[in-house]
Amino acid sequence: MKIMRCYFAICFFPCLFTSAFAGSASITLDQYLEQVQGSNEGYQGSVLTEHADQAALVEGALPFAVQAFGNLQYTDDRRQTIVPIFEGTRTVTDTSQLGLKKLFDFGLQSQLFYGITQNTIYGVSPELVPQTSLVTAGLTLQVTQSLWQNGFGKLNQISRRQTEALDLASAYTSAYQVKTLLADAETRYWTLAIAREVVIIQQKSLNRTVAIRDFNAKRVRAHLIDEPDLLTSIAQAKSKEFDLKTAIDNVRVAERSFNSARGMDSDSVPEPLMSLAPEALQSLQVPERSELRDDVKAAEQNTIVTTAKSDIATQNTLPILNVVGTVSTNGLDPSLNTSFHDTLTANNPYYQIGVNLTVPLDFGEVTAMKRAYAEQMKGAELTYRRRLFDQENDWKDLVKKLGEAKERLAIAVDVENAEKLKYDHESVRQKQGVTTTYQVFQYDLDYLTSQLNRIQTQSIILNLIAQMKTYRSGT
């Protein structure tokens, strides 16, 4: 009785398994991937990161943008003076500046600003210093041109290239994660579809075995065959029950994995899935690919980053040689209006030009640092070249495996058809009493194996196609 209840549970579960999604609308692969894109936070995070990194490419140009600046300063100086009647006992200074500054990519730093300074001296002798408050105003242009370190903006250009490469490397890494997540979701879809198909095949195999067991039971009761044939049938039926239970458990695992990718915490997938016939799989074409996979593009940008770091370090070891210059118009008067008016003329110009030179003397440290960065550059280049080699080698391997899997699928279909004919023929002979039950079970096992081999080959083809899609351009 216990055996019968166990058998009833095993056989009845696939009926529930089938009816659970029989009335539900089927979900295609594209619909499932849309659900993953809409609900998988890992996917959404990678997409947002990719978009943000692409938008951040302007970061490298920001240092070269025109900037407005302003300075306000108030000073109250009450320090002792040597000659108070001339220098006073207190000096109050109000300073304000407003202007624009810009760094050019050829190394020129420039500032153009208008400044107003008002000085008021307290405690001086009115006879000796009749004017105690003056306003100084001026329009000033200051420029600095680098000639050696950062010569003509080389360091600026390297820094810009490094920043852009960092953003691109991050963007390509996120783009590859997006494709990998979608390929993984596609694999989960087909894993569940295949697992369900295995359940159906195992159920049919169990049904065939049970039919033979029941047939043999009747023949034993009629004393037409010996009891060992029945015992063989019972043992085979129990073995099939075990295989079916294993297949059902695999479906549950696949359903949880399927739901996890689309952001659901559930062991149940009520929707039926697509199933591709062997003929449809044979017609699947190799997906189009970009020249470089996104992770290889990221490795390429990381090589640029490492090279830029080395170039920056080399630039920072060079002597500093800058040409600096200042030109301004000036006004000086107790009245702000008069002082401002004078700055609009060239009556009181101010000119300054000079050279700044700084030479590092720690030559040993400089040489060691250059050697270290040269090794980093070589390492990054070798890593990129290996990534490039692996990319091409993996693609060729995937294409070859796909072709081989299609050839095996064609053979597997022929084998399955032959095994079915063989089993059907032997079943008829067994009912006629001209062959043994064991022989029928052996043929059933051969038929089941051929079906599972065909399904496994289909799964390999679908997984290969999913992996190939990580080579696509775009998302």
Please provide a written account of the structure.
By secondary structure, this protein is an alpha+beta fold. The protein has a domain at 2-39 and 162-301 and 379-471: Up-down Bundle (Outer membrane efflux proteins (OEP)), CATH 1.20.1600.10. It contains 11 helices and 6 strands. It has helices at residues 2-19, 29-39, 41-55, 84-87, 154-221, 227-261, 278-282, 294-316, 336-343, 363-431, 437-468; strands at 67-77, 90-103, 108-122, 133-146, 320-333, 350-358. A 6-stranded antiparallel sheet has the order 1-2-3-4-5-6. β2 and β3 (108-122) form a beta hairpin. The protein starts with a helix and ends in a 7-residue tail after the last helix. Mean pLDDT is 87; it is low at 1-22.
* Secondary-structure class: alpha+beta
Kindly identify the CATH topology of the domain at 2-39 and 162-301 and 379-471: Outer membrane efflux proteins (OEP)
Helix coverage percent: 55-70%
In the CATH scheme, the class of the domain at 2-39 and 162-301 and 379-471 would be Mainly Alpha
Name the overall outline: rod-shaped
Q: Quickly count the helices.
A: 11
* Alpha carbon gap, first and last residue: 58 Å
Strand order of the largest sheet: 1-2-3-4-5-6
Strand content: 15-25%
The CATH architecture of the domain at 2-39 and 162-301 and 379-471 comes to Up-down Bundle
Described by strand count, sense and barrel closure, the largest sheet is:
6 strands, antiparallel
Average pLDDT taken over every residue:
87
